[in-house]
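Record format v2
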Amino acid sequence: MQILISNNSKEPIYEQIYAQIKKHILTNEIQAGHSLPSMRQLAKDLDVSVITTKRAYEELEKNGFIYSVVGKGSFVSEQNNEMIKERKMKVIEEQLFTAIQNSKEIGISLTELKELLTLLYREEA
Amino acid sequence: MQILISNNSKEPIYEQIYAQIKKHILTNEIQAGHSLPSMRQLAKDLDVSVITTKRAYEELEKNGFIYSVVGKGSFVSEQNNEMIKERKMKVIEEQLFTAIQNSKEIGISLTELKELLTLLYREEA
DNA sequence: ATATTGTATATATACTTTATATACAATATA
DNA sequence: TATATTGTATATAAAGTATATATACAATAT
């Protein structure tokens, strides 16, 4: 698995690692059940501290992409897309919710809001 | 105009000032055209640096609540609620926009999105 | 001319984020 | 069981950001 980090990037190292592994998983380049490089090995390869790779792996675990077992290693989770979908669904709901709150504050009706939504949905092809 | 700041609040001083003046304006306690205390005077009253009051006034100006003129002072802007509404409208559009993008990523149709919106709108009485 | 107003620059301080070293705990395996 | 490998926890350093300041400058009023 190819992971490249750039030191002069503004993006923190742990996020670069996170993003690249996430991408590999989502594009099925690494499949469910397969093992990731150990935190230590990856840290050595990237010439970076274990804590940094751990941080990346932690985020990946928090978001359901991988799981880690002491002594064994870290593995790609079953990527039931349902879970990913649900997670994103929650985010969408929250976004809509705040938009709704703001709308109510300035007296935008549900009908108006729907119209706006339709417009934006079609606009953003 | 009554402004009180708390030093043991987590909220930065400039934000406390900002919020209170904004409230005074929105509730019409100070009316359009009327002058605010000078940055220096307010700074003295609150026992705070001019830079801090300036920062608060800057934010207020950026958001269209007041305007400042060198040598004259700072004044409450015409509060055409239209402007405030427009400003909020833009925010709402942006919120909807990102929600739409996320929706498309996981294949939520416009119809489904509208249903969700309706549900949330009514739920949040 | 002088005082009052807002503004710009350079700086100090506290807080948060990012990254680290090192010691610990659990599992695999020879 | 001994040893190596894996992930984890704690304490800490370094860099970056946010907050607040002093002081000097510029425009306006009187």
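The longest strand of chain A covers residues 66-69.
The beta strands of chain A are 66-69, 73-76.
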